[in-house]
Amino acid sequence: xARMQLFLLPFLEILLLAGTSFLxxxxxxxxxxxxxxxxxxxxxxxxxxxxxxxxxxxPVNNSATAYIGIWYxxxxxxxxxxxxxxxxxxxxVDTSMTSLNLTSDGNLILFEEGTRVWSTGTSAxxxxxxLQLLDSGNLALTADNSNRILWQSFDHECDTFLPGMKxxxxxxxxxxxxxxxxxxxxxxxxxxxxxxxxxxNVPDFFTxxxxxxxxxxxxxxxxxxxxxxxxxxxxxxxxxxxxxTYVSNQNETYYIxxxxxxxxxxxxxxxxxxxxxxxxxxxxxxxxxxxxxxxDDCDHYNYCGRNSVCTKGxxxxxxxxxxxxxxxNVVECARKEPLRCSSNRFWKEASVKVPDTENATxxxxxxxxxxxxxxxxxxxxxxxxxxxxxxxxxTWRGDLLDLRxxxxxxxxxxxxxxxxxxxxxxxxxxxxxxxTLLGIILLCSVGVLVRRRRRNRALQFPNVEKxxxxxxxxxxxxxxxxxxxxxxDFSEENKLGEGGFGxxxxxxxxxxxxxAVKKLSRYSSQGPNEFQNEVSVIAKLQHRNxxxxxxxxxxxxxxxMIFEYMENRSLDAFIYDKAKSSLxxxxxxxxxxxxxxxxxxxxxxxxxxxxxxxxxxxxxILLDKDMNPKISDFGIARIFEGDNxxxxxxxxxxxxxxxxxxxxxxxxxxxxxxxxxxFGVIVLEIISGKKNRVFSQTDTSLNLVGYVYKLWxxxxxxxxxxDILNQSYPKEEVLRCIQMSLLxxxxxxxxxxxxxxxxxxxxxxxxxxxxxxxxxxxxxxSEGGFTTxxxxxxxxxx
Length: 798
Prior knowledge:
Blueprint: H1 2-24, E1 32-34, E2 37-40, E3 45-46, E4 52-57, E5 65-72, E6 83-86, E7 93-94, E8 98-102, E9 108-112, E10 115-119, E11 129-133, E12 139-143, E13 148-152, E14 160-161, E15 167-170, E16 175-177, E17 179-184, E18 187-198, E19 204-209, E20 215-218, H2 233-240, E21 242-248, E22 252-259, E23 267-271, E24 277-283, E25 286-293, E26 308-312, E27 317-321, E28 325-329, E29 332-335, E30 345-352, E31 360-364, H3 368-376, E32 381-386, E33 393-397, E34 403-404, E35 411-417, H4 419-455, H5 480-486, E36 495-499, E37 502-508, E38 514-520, H6 528-539, E39 549-555, E40 558-564, H7 572-575, H8 578-581, H9 586-606, E41 610-612, E42 621-623, E43 629-631, E44 638-640, E45 647-649, E46 654-655, H10 662-667, E47 669-671, H11 672-688, H12 704-713, H13 731-744, H14 755-763, E48 793-794
Parallel strand pairs: 26-34
Antiparallel strand pairs: 1-11, 2-8, 3-4, 4-5, 5-6, 5-7, 8-9, 9-10, 11-12, 12-13, 14-23, 15-16, 15-22, 17-18, 18-19, 19-20, 21-22, 23-24, 24-25, 26-27, 28-29, 30-35, 31-33, 32-33, 32-35, 36-37, 37-38, 38-40, 39-40, 41-44, 42-43, 45-47, 46-48
């Protein structure tokens, strides 16, 4: 009899709670579930701000199996829930005989036919516990009389990392806060991959197999703002207003981030079933992928093996042994000579992701020289680096694993070399000196012969020497014959476009890669200096919103640049064409605007070089097959290093009417704010589908900028929106873009925002400052009385 009572007890509890639910009906009980209550299929908790929802869900439509989980509430795509946490990952349930119960003694239990499937295993004073779903996505079980947290979902592994979650480890309980992937997209059971910090002396975050035998990806140590092995994360932090916090004490070490936007919950980071690490944000009515790792071969853990470094090239990744090492076998490099304790020479490996920190030691915040001395005093030290953040000086022993180089960002690693390498270096230096002298003599002799031959040639196109362009050292050079074959000898049917610089042709290499070839005309206003400038600038810049230069050709009179092929050509071919503009819905236009803004932010602030484009216009914005924008044509760009010379002047203003800032057109003064002006005009043209200079409405004296300003003052701004959109757009977002554009086109460059501020305006819902200064509104005043077509031009004189 006693056994029967014990067996029937769960059934009685379910019947009692189900009876309560029946009396309450199937409606949602809000965001809180009190003790001695339950949820059954059809009932949910919805957070107070209607951000998240908890209830039963099935990852496969029309399936009888279900799970208790948390997902975004009322967020597209509504037909398939974006689930961020699952309770009963190890076992699905049949909802017809299942309930989620909060017992009177504070234990949250999932029952199926009287069997306990999952529980929190907590307890509290009788009838004092309550369960609440928060707007952060956290499901918190607290003791009502003290708000003491008994249990929370943020402490239990899932595949999704939300703002406010901890990522690290609890030293007191010897547990980790980590990701754990789903088994597949339709199976939330624990998968094959986990994302977590390893408890090294210098903690390192890995995506790896659950048992740790296979590592997929590594971020590198924390540098105080982001992870040292992800320099591109710095751009995202600026663009998305992310605030990272690092906490380390005797009880715990963890990282936590908060998004300073109005809707911080609508950003999530996921470890997919294949081990890929992805960050998504809800922007413009849909989920957008902002970060994804690994992105290339070099991101894959230890791709090149031990004591080697991986470099991402234009076509593929390459591996090389570190200085002082040589190939031992296919997968690793070994020292040419053994280290001795007296070895005191170091090789600087610049701009790399520092090695795996399993064998690393943090020496604290000290100078580079002090860090070097610590390494010299330690016979087992093989390398050292000084990075920003809490770890400062880091030294390594043993093999160096998982290094990759960066064109932008990274840290300098100093690798210890044996003493004999010093003598070898001296021998090498003498060999270099002697070879250089012989080379100079030979070059002088050849130079005399070449000069005599050139005197007899009347070239209309001044010559460009490969050696005069630093980028030629890293870019592949193609011979003219190869380019002619690729473009069908520059045939007319392969022509993509033509301008004052010359002609652009479509081509295809033998391996199937499509290319665009810019052939500089010998009569072009873009002469040898502009050609050298464009090749040098683009070769040093790497960003998803900048066009990629694949190579060049300098042969005879020909000056050719080989670019990646953009399937959709340039932006102006879409926004001014009524037929093609129908392909640009608002979401796509907004995506293009943000892409251009990010490209400019990179040029102005985040790249190794600080670049002013000076000829930004729709025809210089190219679109790839997915309609992603890429800024092109850097022939007249200006480069600044550091924070010097943020403004300059020229007696040779160049650019395109309608996009040139007033101060540049009238006085030849240009700055980063000149590009901001051009960007503002482009955004208005994208929104309206009309050109600034040839715009005409009832008042023909106004250009597009002036007309938009007039509508804005009259609170009729939306009248300028392209009719093809048929009012299918989020009004607040469009108004924010229009107001941001008017800020960008103000006459005084000091009144214009920086591109950092522009990106913040575009990605945040915070209210913009009101543009109180009227921009140039005349259709002729901005041209200084000149009449010209849409082609770029040069004005001589001030």
